[in-house]
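User: Assemble these into one structure.

Assistant: Restating your components, then the assembled model:
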Amino acid sequence: MRSSRRQFLQLLGVGTGAAAATGIDVPSGFAQAAGPVKIGVLAIRAGIAAPVGAAGLRGTEWWAERVNKAGGILGRPVQLVVEEESNPKDTVERYRKLVLQDKVEVVLGGISTGVTLALGPVAEDLGTPWLSWDGTTQKGVEETMPSPKWAFKSVDNEVEAIVAGILTPKHFKGVKRVAGIGNDYSYGHDCWESYQAVLKRYIPDVKFVLELFPKLGVTDFTSHIAAIQQSKADLLMCSFWSGDATIIMKQAAAVSLFKTMKGVFTTAGGVHDSLKKEFTPEGLLLGYNTMYFDDPKGSPLLKQFVREYKAKYNEYPPYECDHAFFNAESYKAAVEKAAGPAKKWPEKAQVVKALEGIEVESLSGRRSWREDHVQMCNFYQGITTHKNGYDFVTISPIEVVSTRQAMKPPGTKLFEWINSWKI
Amino acid sequence: MTQHVVNVLLSGVFHASILFLVAAGLQVVFGVQKIFNLACGSFYALGAYAGVSAVGWYAGAGGPPALFILPLALAGLAVGAVGIVVERGLLSFVYDRDETFQLLLTFAVVLMMEDAIRMIWGTSPRSTSGLYLTYGQVRILGAVVPVYNLIVIAASLAIALSIGWLLTRTTFGRIMRATADNREMAEALGVDMRRVYAKVFTLGTALGTLGGALVIPATAAMSEMGIELIVEAFAVVVIGGLGSMRGAFVGALAVGVLRSIAISVYPELEMLLIYLIVIGVLVARPRGLFGGAAA
């Protein structure tokens, strides 16, 4: 996070990398074969999603260090070229710069769907693979790029709300009146719509008594909480994912809201270590998106990552690290697969072909790319508990739901698909 | 029903208390210096971050939790000193320039402060963990109300009364009002304008930073939190009248309570209702409810 906004060439390799770092001219053919592999990274650095961008970048850097220590990709060290994700227009410009000027082999990153909707067509146009951490090319809940060639997209935005909808009736009995609160933009509205659609399938007579959509960045929810109390709901669904999740939790605790009401926080696991026990009760359903840092069944890779992340940043990693790690690791695996036994560096188009359907070991376990370039993985949600060694809540039991169950299959319409479930 | 009315009103008044402090900072500076200080929202954010740090330090040093409000308020007031730096270091050079320059300069301060906060405190939201719950709750007509909210409301009211006293009962207040009315005349009568401006701007800044510090136990500090509030503060000053302290008080109360009622009755109207009133005031009474009165 200590880099300039415009451009930051982070040379993680040694040896061959030094030539590039000092600007020594090398014949381009040689550089192509033996120089560092330039990987473009787009990360949000300012605003509400800056911590998410930081987590993605940290995950990528950790991956790059690890790969370089092990000899790089086909013997070439990895070099990250980091640019900022901001608004769609500027980010598209930076994307073009990464591809045309920095001549990166692949671009990783993209969080805001507002931005990635714009990046999708540009990636197709420039013919360089783009693997998105957390952004989709959905308009609302429907896909706009059903069969891309170069663009690889994140999990559908609404999956965590669908997972929460599936888990709600399992953990909370007798829910009849539900209130919802989410941010006033596509993600908040889509999550609420999807959650309602799923819950209605399980509890046909459920009533949705209140919906609130404060703007992103609001820091006072006392009036919203007054409205939620008045609604006499027996469950509150909340899709906040940034500091506002912490704030509403605290303000709800101040009036003991969850003494009389169940709570579902589909995405608050993104700021999990700010959900202190002092104000976050046990018994809420809490979603961690695709990676749960404290999974007792987690792989040695996850445990090593959590340990080193904590040592370096004094925080416990959120899920964005896993999206980012998976993107980078799947690219490496695809290059190696496409290179074949001859170990010849493949063309970009061959890498893209190799990515389709590829499965790799990520921080959270095995993850893959679906044939239509959408991430497949597991979602982790569970019931909050204070029984741990931290000062914040964790979850137990842990529920793991696969995108195979909770994400619409290619070519289907979301609500038609949900309504076709056999329950 | 009574319980709900109490909930709605008190949450509205709580919001209004913070809004008042920021708007009062905006008003006092505009009233005397005729500068529309966009950076008042950034001072609010700065106060919030300073509050988090101070309380963290206080808890680390083993201070009794019940007294955390003291280091909190002190930190809020102390970082108000940044006002002198901004006033002497930046604004003092543009007093004779066109208002647009002044507006642009304060906007530059907004952007710079946001980056400065990010550099000092990082990008993740910062919060004071469970201190908000230290003082517990009281029941008022059946409604559960956090005691801390009542403390903030009381503090804001006390500050409003102190400002009223300062403006009407002290020499400095009289000088401020005289300057607001007629700067040249005040100067001709021997008022040292440099000192008045430095003091007034620092006062305006401290109101914002104190507001940020006071609100922080109930919320979390985010680098862009000031932007959200400044938009509402605009509505407050338009409704109350630019430069008027009474206007800030009434405007903040109106915006806070109406917002709360809207959220409860018809949430889609939250912002719309406030701006409908803003438009109404602009059309019917362009100078605001208390416009034209001295600061």
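Chain B has a mean pLDDT of 92.
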